[in-house]
Amino acid sequence: MRKQNIIYGRHPVLDALKEGQSIDKILLQKGTRGIYEKELRDLASREHIPVQMVPKEKLNRVTGGTHQGVIAFAALVAYQRLESILPFLFEQSQTPLIVLLDSITDVRNFGAIARSAECMGAHALVVGARSAAPINAESLKTSAGALGRIPVCREASLSLAIKQLQLSGLSVFASDLQAEKKLPDLDLTVPAAILLGSEGDGVHPSLLRKTDERFIIPQLGQTDSLNVSVASGVILYEAMRQRMAE
């Protein structure tokens, strides 16, 4: 059965996966074992869909009890694959500008970043399968519809996504409060990816080590840093300014 963007019941959830419907996450009742669990996990793994084991009580709160031990939350737009986006951009003689988001879980920040990215000419957003805000009604509304226009790629590993981008000829730049190089000093006219981290923790150190260069947004005030959605707008505007000037 379906209720808004919720799919519940064993067969409906499997059918949605087999049909290729974009799913944000799946909740599976603790203790579920056997052929069904294996098939569900195999199908979810292919599309990088996180599966969480939860108590029956949590499932009951979502559906009122008629769930057969499994609930899926359907995304409101289709996720795409990074491996498909990059060749298309190069075939179109475009200079890629990709935005990677590390643990941006607030749907309003996610929506606002998507809005800035689409407005400033970015070609895609890349998020981790287990550390990203869902594409729901609130994020779609905050994006002013941009999430329906800019591709969103969900990858099993941001680390592998960074490697894939670099092997494809992109330079990966990370926003880092400890960096010495300032944003205007970057060359953003090259094929590039911008890596942004969560407001609480920033970009994870393991990802920072894989980037080509780190930078900081210069500021005059005393506040520690900008909100991540505001920072994304500043960074992407600088990229657009440089590219338009060139």
Detailed description of the structure:
With 246 residues, the chain is an alpha/beta fold. Helices cover 37% and strands 20% of the residues. The chain contains nine helices and eleven strands. The chain has helices at 10-18, 35-46, 56-63, 82-91, 107-119, 137-142, 158-167, 205-208, 228-245, and strands at residues 2-3, 6-8, 23-29, 51-54, 70-74, 97-102, 124-128, 152-155, 171-175, 192-197, 213-215. The strands form two sheets. The protein has a six-stranded parallel sheet with strand order 8-7-6-10-9-11, sandwiched between helices. Strands 1-2-5-3-4 form a five-stranded mixed sheet. Strand 6 (97-102), helix 5 and strand 7 (124-128) form a beta-alpha-beta unit. Helix 5 packs parallel to helix 9 (228-245). 37% of the residues are buried. The mean pLDDT is 92.
Fold topology:
Blueprint: E1 2-3, E2 6-8, H1 10-18, E3 23-29, H2 35-46, E4 51-54, H3 56-63, E5 70-74, H4 82-91, E6 97-102, H5 107-119, E7 124-128, H6 137-142, E8 152-155, H7 158-167, E9 171-175, E10 192-197, H8 205-208, E11 213-215, H9 228-245
Parallel strand pairs: 3-4, 6-7, 6-10, 7-8, 9-10, 9-11
Antiparallel strand pairs: 1-2, 2-5, 3-5
Helix pairs in contact: 1-2, 5-9
Termini Cα gap: 53 Å
Helix content: 25-40%
What is the general shape?
elongated
The secondary-structure class comes to alpha/beta
Radius of gyration: 19 Å
Spatial ordering of strands, largest sheet: 8-7-6-10-9-11
Q: Runs with pLDDT <50, length 5+? A: none
Number of strands: 11
Proportion of beta-strand residues? 15-25%
Number of helices: 9
| N-to-C series of helices and strands | EEHEHEHEHEHEHEHEEHEH
> How can the largest sheet be summarized?
6 strands, parallel
Average per-residue pLDDT, rounded, comes to 92
